[in-house]
Amino acid sequence: MAQTLLQTPLHGRHVELGARMVPFAGWEMPVQYEGVIPEHRAVRSDAGVFDVSHMGEIEIEGPQATALLQGLLSNDLEKIAPGEAQYTLLTNERGGIVDDLIVYRLGPCRYLLVVNASNRDADFRWLKEREIRGSEVSDVSDEYALLAVQGPHAIEKLGLARAKAFTFAEQTIDGIETMVGRTGYTGEDGCEVLCMAEDAVALWDAVLARGIVPCGLGARDTLRLEVCYPLHGNDIGPDTDAISAGLGWTCALDKEFTGVDVLRRIKSAGPGRKLVAFVMEDRAIARHGMPIDGGGEVTSGTHSPTLDVGIGMGYVPSAQARAGTELSIDVRGKSRRARVVTKPIYKREG
Amino acid sequence: MAAVESYPDDLRYHEAHDWARIEGGEAVLGITWFAADSLGELVHFEPPAAGSTVTKDEPYGEVESVKAVSDVIAPLTGEVLEVNQKVVDAPETVNEDPYGEGWLVRIRMADATEVDALLDVAAYQSVLASQ
Fold first, then answer.
1. What is the rounded distance in angstroms from the CA atom of residue A146 to the CA atom of residue B76?
2. Suppose A24 and one of A29, A166, A288, B100 were both cysteines; which one would form an S-S bond, judging by CB atoms 3.0 to 4.6 Å apart?
3. Would you call B8 exposed, middle or buried from its count of C-beta atoms within 10 A (0-12, 13-18, 19+)?
4. pLDDT tens digits for B91-112?
């Protein structure tokens, strides 16, 4: 069914730059400008900027905000103070993953969740239905634009001071008021910059004027896969649990949250299957959904621009999950060899 | 560097964005600039085996970019005499030079009359214009 695609405040800028626009999670987004590979390399060696304004922002406020979120999110909010952020999961009763997200602790009783575009409505409904007295959940996505500025020179090119990972602060960039979080989805140094929607074009222009390369969703996917960050909807989802996905570190199993009993059981029994990373041994590219011999399945696969080889992630029976294990993947009817490797597939120096 | 858009007039074309250069009883096959550009930078070419038969209008190989995979359709029927190893080793050659260094296979044609059904450059460009 034809559906009108949403556009970010930067849509006009993308079109002017000659971006190839594609539908993604209900949005019309740039998949590439110059090309996936040069954009990927810009982020690994210099600095690139991604318009990720399609992502959702949900605010939770009130004296009971912490209590509400502690019961719904897997990670322990007591570990972060105002000015700090945390990677965490919104879980369901089966221990599955409704979404993975970053929670920013704006104040003692105020939080901002940055969630996947495809899950924005589901997340908001999930939270709103569980709202308790003394907590107020609001979808504020339309108020903000979000740019991810990533790469070894990203911080320096933005003229920002160094700061610890997973902290955030208000910063003025070329006269534009922003909130800069030291987070990202590429495995490189860098930040994610939140601004008011009406300031998005000015911020984008300022970032580009600082010699930062515009990058599309294509490079975002190859970058995240090289460092084995899961993509919700591919590698994780409502029917996969955090323990099998290797995200046990985001789950405070000593507190009570949705599905924690299921996760405790999986943790103590050991998961039957695990999400592993692999590198192709044969010249081939595995893709999402391809069967792996022994009952496994590829959840993400691409060509790694950094390593110049096929890479991916997939679920395999735990017996096949050890690094060094050879896998056989059915690539459109042909059996292709891959090898399980330790995550991440690529790690930056230093 | 990716090549600029062009469609040489000495080639014959298939509407699935493939070209053939007829050389006596043999033909060299490749994909057009439009096909290469639509896919983006190629990172893999899955070739047919030398000696195998390719069949007109049927897929005989695959080309992949980072984001997508596409069948390569044979514009003609014949036996594969040679696979372009340069493209196997460096698939981006197709983006750089789709009608020269970026050819894919050379075949011995089984039925030279099939050539008559292929498009000339004007007909192929009207296919492109209608897309």
1. 50
2. A29
3. middle
4. 999 999 999 999 999 999 999 9
Q: Which residues contact A2 (CB under 8 A, 6 or more apart)?
A: none
| Cross-strand partners of A172 | A177
ipTM of the complex as predicted: 0.86
Of A36, A285, A302, the CB nearest to B41: A36
- For residue A329, pLDDT over 60 is answered with yes
Q: Are A60 and A136 in contact (CB under 8 A)?
A: yes
Domains of chain B: 12-129 (2.40.50.100)
3-class SS of residue A13 = helix
If DSSP codes are grouped into helix, strand and coil, which group holds residue A5?
coil
Omega before A230 within 30 of 0, i.e. cis: no
Is the CB of residue A109 less than 8 Å from the CB of residue A63?
A: yes
By C-alpha distance, the chain B residue nearest A303 is B66
Q: Which ranges of A24-96 would DSSP assign to H, the alpha helix?
A: 36-45, 65-70
Compute the nearest-CA separation of B99 from chain A (Å).
Answer: 21
CB contact under 8 A, B67 and A305: no
A79 to chain B, minimum CA–CA distance in Å? 38
Contact list, B69 vs chain A (CB under 8 Å): 285, 287, 332
Q: What three-state secondary structure class fits B74?
A: coil
| Model confidence, pTM | 0.94
Test B41 with A35 for CB contact under 8 angstroms: yes
Structure tokens belonging to residue A197: 């929607």
Tens of pLDDT, residue by residue over B46-85, are 999 999 999 999 999 999 999 899 999 999 999 999 999 9
**Alpha-carbon gap: A50 to the closest alpha carbon of chain B (Å):** 17
CA distance A183 to A164: 10
